[in-house]
Inverse folding.
């Protein structure tokens, strides 16, 4: 493959940083990846695996977490009221992401629920949402007794296709939830433009996308509210945890009241419940861990992006292994996972499931992401048939709803996706060379896999 073509693919896959990396590594990277091959017999067929050592483990203790937890324990201040760690963490979080306000919550799911409540999503409303994501992106909409309207994906970015948003808007539509899935930034220019045109709220699901950037700005800071998850697998972990980010003081105040039993503690007027609310509060334990974990967040994001650039560049000539393309303007991924599609017709006929088996056998952990788009989970039908939904929506509307939600591109993505975890991407350049080596080895011997 000509070098300019190789660089073009690396750029499309990995964004602007990819081009810089590709131009500096184009003579050594692929050559190196080809040269480290040891055994040509695939491990899945009984040969030696490319790799036998584990990748970095997760979560990692990166600082003073242990002492911080003991301090919370001994202080007796385990609840955020009257303590300061949660508040302190919110300050650091807002500064790190670049918003005026941050509110820590018990989880990413409760952050999304809080955001929906603050955006006044009510029973009988509709909310547009990415169709290829983790279940929480849409289950929260059902929990508000509203209907998710699923947007199909772009076949190359694997993210919500902004072109398809406008045709789904009705007089019931109240908000859009774009998901920066896998830590890849959505096209926030196009999403915000259509939202503003139709006066819709935007709640960014950035639960997998800590410090991913679109046009140099962190995702989660474009819409009315951005939501994060600190569940243990996430790039910023505390076991469980989440946050709402935003610049609008009134909206973030509403989030604070809603997540804290509907009371405004700042007014200090005692037990008066002025708003609908619940308990989605974070604990001081979580905040103590997060205050330490957040210190390395930026460095880890830079490290993953460099590794992904290098990896994509090494694999640029294997067209059947197609990493997610960055949207125009997307300039950094968080890479909660590396997303790539296997195209059998360009991979000597090898299917995705066989590829996953073969790559796993070579010592590279990988899996297939979500088995089906959100609109086809069985829980959708349960809500549609519920007494409450039958009262809220016309029967014929609910009856034609499943067919109207069909998302053919998300279906294809579910059947062809391969996912490599962020923990592998925290490895060394040699680790990336081994991943590339394993993919190339499988490609070369694809016709030997039963
Ligand atoms: C895209 C997405 N949204 C929302 C969530 C919910 O976050 P949590 O598990 O912290 O409730 C997750 C968690 O995996 C997620 O991946």
């Amino acid at each position: 493959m000509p070098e300019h073509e190789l660089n073009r693919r690396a750029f499309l896959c990995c964004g602007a940083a990819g081009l810089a990396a590709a131009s500096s590594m184009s003579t050594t990277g692929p050559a190196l990846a080809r040269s480290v091959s040891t055994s040509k017999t695939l491990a899945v067929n009984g040969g030696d695996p490319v790799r036998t050592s584990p990748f970095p483990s997760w979560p990692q203790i990166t600082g003073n977490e242990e002492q911080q937890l003991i301090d919370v324990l001994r202080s007796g201040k385990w609840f955020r009221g009257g303590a300061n760690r949660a508040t302190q963490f919110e300050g650091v979080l807002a500064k790190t992401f670049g918003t005026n306000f941050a509110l820590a919550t018990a989880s990413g799911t409760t952050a999304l629920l809080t955001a929906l409540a603050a955006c006044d999503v009510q029973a009988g409303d509709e909310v547009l949402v990415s169709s290829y994501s983790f279940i929480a992106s849409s289950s929260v909409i059902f929990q508000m007794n509203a209907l998710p309207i699923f947007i199909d994906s772009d076949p190359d970015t694997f993210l919500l296709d902004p072109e398809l948003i406008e045709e789904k808007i009705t007089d019931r539509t109240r908000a859009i939830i774009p998901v920066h899935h896998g830590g890849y930034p959505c096209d926030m220019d196009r999403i915000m433009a259509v939202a503003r045109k139709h006066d819709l709220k935007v709640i960014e699901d950035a639960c997998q996308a800590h410090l991913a950037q679109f046009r140099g700005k962190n995702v989660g800071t474009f819409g009315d509210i951005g939501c994060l998850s600190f569940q243990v697998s996430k790039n910023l972990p505390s076991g469980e945890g989440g946050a709402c980010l935003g610049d609008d003081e009134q909206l973030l105040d509403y989030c604070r009241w809603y997540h804290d039993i509907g009371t405004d503690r700042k007014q200090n007027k005692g037990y008066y419940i002025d708003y609908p609310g619940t308990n989605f509060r974070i604990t001081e334990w979580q905040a103590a861990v997060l205050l330490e974990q957040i210190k390395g967040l930026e460095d880890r994001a830079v490290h993953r992006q460099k590794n992904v650039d290098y990896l994509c560049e090494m694999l640029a000539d294997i067209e059947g292994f197609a990493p997610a393309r960055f949207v125009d303007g997307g300039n950094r991924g968080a890479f909660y996972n590396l997303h790539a599609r296997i195209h059998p017709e360009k991979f000597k006929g090898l299917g995705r499931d066989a590829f996953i088996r073969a790559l796993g056998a070579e010592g590279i952990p990988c899996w297939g992401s979500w088995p089906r788009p959100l609109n086809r989970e069985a829980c959708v039908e349960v809500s549609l048939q519920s007494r409450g939904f039958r009262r809220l929506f016309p029967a014929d509307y609910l009856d034609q709803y499943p067919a109207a939600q069909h998302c053919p591109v998300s279906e294809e993505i579910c059947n062809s996706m391969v996912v490599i975890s962020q923990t592998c991407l925290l490895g060394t350049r040699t680790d990336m060379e081994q991943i590339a080596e394993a993919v190339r080895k499988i490609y070369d011997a694809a016709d030997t896999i039963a």
Notes: The chain has two domains: 3-58+297-370+412-448, 65-295. Residues 3-58+297-370+412-448 form a domain with the Aspartate Aminotransferase, domain 1 fold (CATH 3.90.1150.10). The chain has 18 helices and 13 strands.
